[in-house]
Amino acid sequence: MVIILALQHLTTADWIMIVVILMAALIALGVYTWSLYGRIPKEHTPLIGQEAVVTSWDGRDRRVEVFGATWAAHMPESYTQTITPGDIVIVRAIDNLVLIVTPTGEKI
After folding, report:
1. Is the C-alpha dihedral spanning 71, 72, 78, 81 positive or negative?
2. How many CB atoms are located within 10 Å of the residue 72 CB?
């Protein structure tokens, strides 16, 4: 009840100041978040070199499981082996949350 009464006494200038402060805070948060994007490690992560199990490899739906988590996956076009669910692949790189994998020829 006290908050409602306090808000009723704010002037237009007060509301403009509140909006300006909130917008400045949102812009600062956005700039900070954007600056962190460049710091995402693309090499030397625990996933690189790990074995992954193919859970789905059909058309555009290509998924592998590593450490109990399911990830989108992609295989370089230079590899011509056929991948099927249950195959084991090796994680070679990460590209925007998509794992780049290569086949090992093993099955579970």
Report:
1. positive
2. 15
